[in-house]
Amino acid sequence: MQTSAPDIHDDLRDALRALCADFPSEYHRKHGAAETYPEEFITALTKAGWMAAMIPEEFGGSGLGLTEASIVMEEINRAGGNAGHCHGQMYNMGTLLRHGSDAQKAQYLPKIASGELRLQSMAVTEPSTGTDTTKLKTTAVRKGDKYVINGQKVWISRIQHSDLMILLARTTPLADVKRKSEGLSIFLVELDQVIGKGMEVKPIANMVGHETNELFFDNMEIPADTLIGEEGKGFRYILDGLNAERTLIAAECIGDGYWFIEKATAYAGEREVFSRPIGQNQGVQFPIARAYTNIEAANLMRFEACRRFDAMEPSGAQANMAKLLAADASWEAANVCLQTFGGFGFAQEYDVERKFRETRLYQVAPISTNLILSYVAEHILGMPRSF
Ligand SMILES: Cc1cc2nc3c(=O)[nH]c(=O)nc-3n(C[C@H](O)[C@H](O)[C@H](O)COP(=O)(O)OP(=O)(O)OC[C@H]3O[C@@H](n4cnc5c(N)ncnc54)[C@H](O)[C@@H]3O)c2cc1C
Q1: What is the pLDDT of residue 151?
Q2: I want to staple 123 with a disulfide (CB 3.0 to 4.6 A). Which of 153, 277, 291, 368 is the partner?
Q3: In this prediction, what percent of the chain has a pLDDT beyond 90?
Q4: What PROSITE patterns would the database entry show (predicted)?
């Protein structure tokens, strides 16, 4: 399918398509939740070096940028898979690379690059505060050479298939800081040191077969040198990770969008009703053409967000807008595809209903549509603050 995005990564795309071809839709249909995690697929991606795409060459990675990482994610979804099972390592990498100490990088990056360790989890969201992140209640209190963590998180993904987790917690009470974004810190937690030893994990069964969990911290102790960067500046650091995450999710939505358009177009050409292909009817063609157009437009913003992130330019506005446009475009394409398939869209064997559910998530996570619009209104257009 022709696309308007810069076509400078054909080799990368070819290699990924070859790998993804070994994991057909039947495979992805069966895998997802903790007990059915697509381990073979993620292992194949790791062995081929894709999960180390952003790790600098000196640490054993490929030294590629967010642009290339986003293509990895896009191609997984475009091939019928779900990059949500492994995208954490890409966006968490941005946080560790930009804000981790030399010692932390030397300790972890080579092992992540070799596949010995996975950095797939990031714990931000909390049940009682939701999107109001700076009000989060999990605390980290320094005691000698340790921090003691108490609190709770929700929707924390891939814990059962990760070795490391980036944790956001409050180190200075909200009442004692000038700005609510101050006093938060991030930590790089080794999961085998805390699971069952201060941290309890409770899986959440969910609509998209995504491995995700509630976490409970009860006097969980972690070494003080797990702190990333300076104490109290964690919110600023994690924003880099969040911008990377939004851009990668945009790329995944683009991959989903192309998958839906390809399926819808092929089916509209094959399915004959009233003695002609349904795709001959403009009532069927036009929604597919419109959805494709919107994916193409969103894709340009996605590459602009990637370019700015890789150039170390501010990318918050573009990352948020790319995520909004791409999530809307993939959701539109999902609806159009389901409608084109008619009743067969509801049969699991066509995968349309599965991808429909999977792409729906991106209207809500990792940031909901309303919150992006609020960011655009307030931070880009300078409109009055609403919360
Ligand atoms: C499958 C899945 C995996 C996830 N994985 C992770 C993970 O690995 N790590 C992690 O930290 N989090 C994760 N999340 C959490 C996700 O980031 C949040 O669900 C998301 O940010 C929305 O937060 P919330 O669910 O608390 O919604 P809430 O903040 O409770 O909001 C609920 C609704 O109200 C709307 N709303 C709230 N306030 C306003 C306002 N002021 N104006 C207008 N609308 C408003 C929101 O847009 C939303 O639609 C995951 C979630 C899911 C579903």
Answers
A1: 98
A2: 153
A3: 93
A4: ACYL_COA_DH_2 (PS00073)
Tell which CATH classification among 1.25.10.10, 1.10.1370.30, 1.10.357.10, 1.20.140.10 matches the domain 236-380: 1.20.140.10
The overall average pLDDT reported for the chain is 95
All structural domains of the chain with their residue ranges: 10-114, 121-232, 236-380
Longest CA pairwise span in the chain (Å): 78
Mutate to test the pocket of ligand 1, among 359, 360, 368, 374 (most ligand atoms within 8 A of CB): 368
Atom of ligand 1 nearest to the CA of 127: 26
- The top-level CATH class assigned to 121-232 is mainly beta
Provide the β-strand partners of residue 168: 186
The CA distance from 250 to 326, in Å, is 5
Look at ligand 1, atom 33, and give the residue with the nearest C-alpha.
368
Give kind and range of the element (H or E) at residue 141: strand 139-143
Residue 263 Cα to ligand 1 middle (Å): 30
Segments in 23-101 forming alpha helices (H): 25-30, 39-47, 66-78, 88-99
At residue 163, does pLDDT exceed 70? Answer: yes
Q: Ligand 1: which atom is nearest the Cα of residue 158? A: 8
Contact between 56 and 63 (Cβ < 8 Å): yes
Q: Is the pTM of this model over 0.90?
A: yes
Residue nearest to atom 44 of ligand 1 (CA): 370
